[in-house]
Design a protein that fits this description.
This protein is α/β, with parallel strands linked by helices and about 350 residues long. The protein is built from 12 helices and 10 strands.
Length: about 350
């Protein structure tokens, strides 16, 4: 492990008001999104769509790193150029999702545990050889009646910490993603409570596994009411609750926090990030950035629909969403940008 290289990479990923583009959807998830807009669910269509993304002109103005799946990191452009080479040549760092997905947790009904630690050391070395500079592991925490349990939180936190230690050993910056899902009818206050407990547990485990926090990025949820909760707080209320929660739980040594979008609309995700980087920015010891998937990609996917004639318009939509989120990092995003 070269500590200084890890620190430098982590800082670069959140520098210049840029953020991460998550394009690491599993094959089943990608196929579901294709099906909704009538796109054939084939490997070639997934490859074509990802080529559309990585060849978007000017994407590197707002995006510092792209998180790929195992399928994507092995794919090539139609002309045979490896995707990793295209991404790196544009000045964007290639990253890789390395978990094997969230599975039902034995003895814990309705709760999940993320798998993938077996053989991870060897897989990480392969990804480094392919050109990856950072990695991602997602843990899933569900809020419901009497859950999450302490056992679920601790098991996922330990897995995240063990993954992070292996990443740093291999020379990859670990993006640590403990996602408290926004599904359900829970209140913002309940999400705050669970998110704070999860983050405290994750950082306790990172410390126990001797992970260097200066070479880590955190990818958390925002503190939000459940989607079916009758009370939906304002953008500013969400921003305030999220920042307070993070200040209580995330050490200042962490260089950056890159939020997941988690099912928020593109506009709301940008507006909430913008509010945190506006009047609250003076309170922040870390960079607050983005690592969005659907909140950046969905408008482009809706336009493309698998039709070559729509590629340019789809790329323009992708560029626009990335630019909106860069503005949100500066506290300069506003609704008028959506009309441009």
């Amino acid at each position: 492990m070269n500590a200084q290289e890890l620190i430098d990479t982590a800082k670069k990923l959140v520098a210049s008001d840029k953020g991460l583009l998550a394009m690491d959807e599993s094959t089943p998830t990608c196929n579901k999104r294709f099906a909704k807009v009538g796109i054939p669910q084939t490997e070639e269509m997934r490859r074509t769509y990802r080529e559309l993304i990585i060849t978007t002109p000017g994407l590197n103005e707002s995006i510092s790193g792209a998180i790929l799946s195992d399928e994507t990191i092995h794919q090539q452009k139609k002309d045979g150029t490896p995707f990793v080479e295209v991404i790196a040549a544009s000045g964007i760092m290639p990253g890789i999702k390395v978990d094997a997905g969230a599975k039902d947790m034995a003895g814990h009904p309705e709760e999940k545990i993320t798998e993938g630690l077996d053989g991870l050391r060897e897989r990480l070395l392969e990804y480094v050889q392919l050109g990856a500079r950072f990695a991602k592991w997602r843990a899933v925490i569900v809020i419901g009646d009497s859950i999450p349990s302490r056992g679920c939180i601790e098991a996922n936190a330990q897995a995240l910490a063990r993954y992070a230690g292996l990443c740093q050993e291999a020379g990859l910056v670990p993006v640590v993603e403990p996602e408290v899902l926004m599904d359900g009818g829970h209140t913002l206050e309940r999400c705050f409570q669970v998110t704070e407990e999860v983050l405290h547990t994750v950082f306790d485990q990172l410390y126990r596994q001797r992970v260097m926090l200066e070479g880590v990025l955190l990818k958390p949820n925002m503190v939000l009411p459940g989607l079916s909760c009758p009370k939906q707080e304002t953008v500013d209320e969400v921003a305030d609750a999220t920042v307070i929660c993070l200040l209580r739980a995330v050490p200042a040594a962490v260089p950056g926090i890159t939020f997941l979008s988690g099912g928020q609309s593109s506009e709301l995700a940008s507006a909430r990030l913008n509010a945190m980087n506006g009047s609250l920015k003076s309170r922040l010891p870390w960079a607050l950035s983005f690592s969005f998937a659907r909140a950046i990609q969905q408008p482009a996917l809706d336009i493309w629909q698998g039709d070559e004639a729509n590629v340019l318009a789809a790329q323009q939509a992708l560029y626009h969403r990335a630019k909106c989120n860069k503005a949100a990092r500066r506290g300069e995003y506003n609704a008028a940008m959506e009309q441009s």
